[in-house]
Amino acid sequence: MSTRLVIAAAAAVLIVPAGLLTGVAIIAGAAGAMSAGGLTAAVAACTYAYPDADRLADTMAALTAEPVQVTQWDRYAALIGVDADTTAWSDSTREQRDEVLDAAVRNLLYTNTPAAVTTPPIIWWRNTVPDDTDTTWHTTPVPGWDGDLASYLSALLDRYATAPGNDWADHDCTAPAATACAQPTNLDAILATIRHLESGDDYTQHSHSVADDGRNNSGNPTGAYQFLYTTWNRHGGYNEAFLAPPAIQDARASADIDTILDAFAGDVAWVPVAWYVGLGGARNVSNGTWSSAYTPNPAYNTLSIGDYQARWLHHYTTIALPAAGTAPTECPQHGAAAVAWAETQLGAPYAAIDPYRFGTPAWPGGARTGSRGDNYNFPAGTVVYDCSGFVIAAWRHAGVDLVAQYGLYGSQAFPNSPLQEIDPAAIAPGDLAVYSPNSNGVGHIVMIHHIDPDGTVATIEASPSRGVSIGALNWARVTSIKRPHLTTDTSTPVIR
User: Fold this and answer.
1) Is the pLDDT reported for residue 331 higher than 60?
2) Whole-number Cα distances in Å, 348 to 134, 343, 468
3) Which class is domain 336-483?
4) Segment holding 153, helix H or strand E
5) Global pTM value
6) How far from each other are the two terminal CA atoms of the chain, in whole angstroms?
7) Do the beta carbons of residue 141 and residue 71 sit within 8 Å?
8) pLDDT, tens digit (0-9, with 9 covering 90-100), for 277-330
9) Strand, helix or coil at 281?
10) From CA 479, how far away is CA 406, in angstroms rounded?
11) Which is nearest to 218 in space by CA: 210, 362, 85?
12) By C-alpha distance, which of 380, 403, 355, 14 is closest to 179?
């Protein structure tokens, strides 16, 4: 999906109940969230965002010769009805220790926030889950493991993710969608929208025709759908599109729309992208090679790809679909849209490294060093984020490009940004909370996910210890609340 949408279009969203704060701890600098077995980031999100207690206990049991040390036995033996004062660890059986591990993992997974794959093992070896100011948690030693807690968790994530049978159905999980919701596909409405934006419904539009100007760098678009001269390619025996009758232009446009829909699984929101930059260009946007903030052929075009798509979808959903007798899907808007898309990324790993930290392009494979010296190693195709990259990506999917519109690129730019300052009492989903720097001088930016009736504020964010997850707002570090706004003008047609 393009990264700037007014109305997002795709499949179902992973909605996390307010009372179940799920997330996943992915380790900054650790050896990756997936093995080289070809798992995609979408699979990782589903796998990690819905932890399986039995599989997690089995994974922990396989990583060290004795996962239940004296400390763990004394702390958790009561969970299986054994008094550790009466039955010491040295007197326990292997079966009892295995039973303690199983019971403790289940207890820790479902009674702590976040309910992440790494929550039980972190507490198991370290007693507590680190907060966002703790910069030493990863160095905790793990008995029986040749390395620290960070490397242990890396191996655990890899083994957990690649266990046999670990798939969508196993977790009753819906694959994360690219965006928040799907719009109906109506060919008449699609044709009407393209005509409106491209030519103002003028089948004879030929301001850049070869007949008038000769070949030029505009591509010589003509007709109601502004077919480029080379794309039209004397279709139907007509040298240029504007010379063909409306029925011929409509039929050619319909065939091209079918090709686009086939290429993008029927997602109508890709039609404007492909119409604007071609099918190859749309694939470049899809795979992250091109940013949606890119304006193609700027000598003749004034809109970025994302702006064009946003304007197109606005007309399609508010005018063209109703005129064709089809009701548009009610989709989240603005902050709600940013949150809805962000939920589809639960479980994605954290990596503070350009250019991958915005989710696109996907990780190319292998090890790389981030801007702060952290080492990252993920399989090719993994989608990763850092804190600012994640909120920028989320708001791009809601129609606001914080980079293109406000010059915001990293967390350090948000405190003094031109974004609207919000009274904390008026905080709403999608707002951005700016955190003060931690002891290492590193700032943080999080997005508000929801506010409970008692006033507790939940966030959705990308953090080094949890990856993309839902957690609680740390008011002690909040310096300001910012709110992006949609600025795309959708009032006038685009004639190129």
Assistant:
1) yes
2) 21, 10, 5
3) alpha beta
4) helix 149-161
5) 0.54
6) 24
7) no
8) 999 999 888 776 777 767 888 888 888 887 888 789 889 999 999 999 999 987
9) helix
10) 19
11) 210
12) 14
